[in-house]
Amino acid sequence: MEKEIVNRVAKSKLITLDLETYYPKGDRFEIDLSQWLDEGLILREAHFREVLEQHQWEAYRDGYVAIHCSTEAIVPVWAYMLTGKYLEGVARDTVVGTLEVLETQLFREALNTLDLNSFKDRPVIIKGCSNLPVPASAYVWALQKVQKVAKSVLFGEACSSVPLFRKT
Questions:
Q1: What residue ranges do the domains of the chain occupy?
Q2: Which value, to the nearest 10 degrees, does the dihedral of the CA atoms of residues 38, 43, 46, 47 take?
Q3: Which burial class, exposed, middle or buried, applies to 63 when counting CB atoms under 10 A from its CB (0-12, 13-18, 19+)?
Q4: Cα→Cα distances 143→39, 45, 148, Å
Q5: Could you give the residue ranges of the DSSP H alpha helices within the chain?
Q6: What's the maximum distance between 2 C-alpha atoms anywhere in the chain?
């Protein structure tokens, strides 16, 4: 007589929080200001303004943009501001920093909208594997939000998880 295989995870009260579902859809772009500096180091205002005016800003339409400088140039804040001016009304969001900084900002905003009601007094597992770039800080923020209401919080997959929090 064969014994029926039962999926105990599916029957449990465990709720999975998959941060990948909070990944904002849209293209990501980097603008490296060093491309518009003399020898990648010296900002000449007139030239910089001219390059910005001639740049094809529509390429960033509805995307997320990270503005940074990859060289050791000292870039004044107004140069980032002026670049951001051209992205207003074109890009969905703009940050000063790397793509990692951009992803961190996007997840911070997304997790601020997290509805905690479904996690109240329930065991929660924050899914660990992701195909999309979920920054480590997003996992920390998710834990900090969910632990306020959850019975317990684990990290990983149901078959192999790490306990992080248990309400006492």
A1: 8-24+107-166, 31-91
A2: 30
A3: middle
A4: 45, 45, 9
A5: 8-11, 45-54, 77-87, 99-111, 136-146
A6: 84
Q: What distance lies between CA 79 and its chain's CA centroid?
A: 24
What's the rounded Cα separation, in Å, for the pair 33 and 144? 36
125 and 95 Cβ atoms separated by less than 8 Å:
no
Alpha-carbon dihedral sign for residues 78, 82, 83, 88: positive
- Report the chain's C-alpha Rg in angstroms: 22
Listed in sequence order, the residues at least 6 apart from 93 whose beta carbon sits closer than 8 Å to its beta carbon are: 64, 65, 102, 105, 106
Q: Are 12 and 131 in contact (CB under 8 A)?
A: no
Confidence (pTM): 0.81
What tens digit of pLDDT does each residue of 78-125 get? Answer: 999 999 999 999 999 999 999 999 999 999 999 999 999 999 999 999
- 52, 56, 60, 65 alpha-carbon torsion, rounded to 10°: -20
Residue 37 neighbours by CB distance under 10 Å: 20
Q: Number of helices and strands (H, E) in the chain?
A: 5, 7
Tens of pLDDT, residue by residue over 56-80, are 999 999 999 999 999 999 999 999 9
